[in-house]
Amino acid sequence: MDQAFDQPVCKKKKLWELVAEKVNAKLRESEVTDITVKAYECDLKWRNMLATYRKNAERAKRLGTTGVHWEFFKAMHEVLGKSREEIEAQRRAKFSGTRVGKAIASKRFTPILPTPPTTSTPITTRPPQDILQLYMELQERKMNMWAQQKALEERKIEAINNLAQAISNLAQRNSTQTKDGH
Fold first, then answer.
1. What is the pLDDT of residue 25?
2. Position 98 in a domain
3. Residue 105 belongs to some domain of the structure
4. What is the pLDDT of residue 124?
5. N or C: at which end does the chain have fewer Cβ atoms within 10 angstroms?
6. Domain annotation covers residue 26
7. Do the beta carbons of residue 39 and residue 16 sit within 8 Å?
């Protein structure tokens, strides 16, 4: 479902619902009937696995793949471990027929570069990729927290609905017993 998830405008919730349906079908095929997964759980699990993969990919860059002990790393790396050249080629292919792509190809644009600092004292900064990695990790954590908060709110709503149903059932039983004279 990579292409569906890569679309700039799509309903991710619907896609995760399809994923959950597929996972539940596989569970039923395996005769596992006491477990069902929900769309938000699949989304959250994917985000967590993606974060774990990224941490292990960084570790693999530093120490080599023998330094990575996560059991899913090899499978995840086969899917996500594209080289920079492959990613750049994909990006160029996406833009090739667009106005932005044509402008870039004809070099009729001026890139916006950061303004150099005006202070004369040297500033120790992290390399740009570290800052980007830190930012990406922060965004990942925010998304995970949001997904967890959403899951909690959905559980609260479910509990409130269950409580309302129980109260309604009790009220119906009481009114039935009163009418019958019991």
1. 94
2. no
3. no
4. 52
5. C
6. no
7. yes
Of the candidate ranges 78-82, 98-102, 119-123, 130-134, the one whose mean pLDDT is the lowest = 119-123
The rounded Cα 143 to chain-centroid distance in angstroms is: 7
Q: How many domains does the chain have?
A: 1
Distance separating alpha carbons of residues 90 and 70, to the nearest angstrom: 28
Cβ pair 58, 40 in contact under 8 A: no
Residue indicated by tokens 């402008």: 103
How many Å apart are CA 87 and CA 95, to the nearest integer? 13
Q: Which two tokens stand for residue 99?
A: 């106005």
3-state secondary structure of 109: coil
pTM of the prediction?
Answer: 0.46
Q: What range defines the domain where residue 148 resides? A: 127-182
Contacts within 8 Å (CB) and 24+ apart, 39-47: 39/13, 40/16, 40/147, 40/150, 40/151, 40/154, 41/151, 42/16, 43/12, 43/16, 43/147, 44/144, 44/147, 44/148, 44/151, 47/140, 47/143, 47/144, 47/147
Q: What's the CA gap between 141 and 144, in Å, rounded?
A: 5
| 67 has a pLDDT exceeding 90 | no
42: nearest Cα among 61, 66, 17: 17
Q: Would residue 29 count as lying in a domain?
A: no
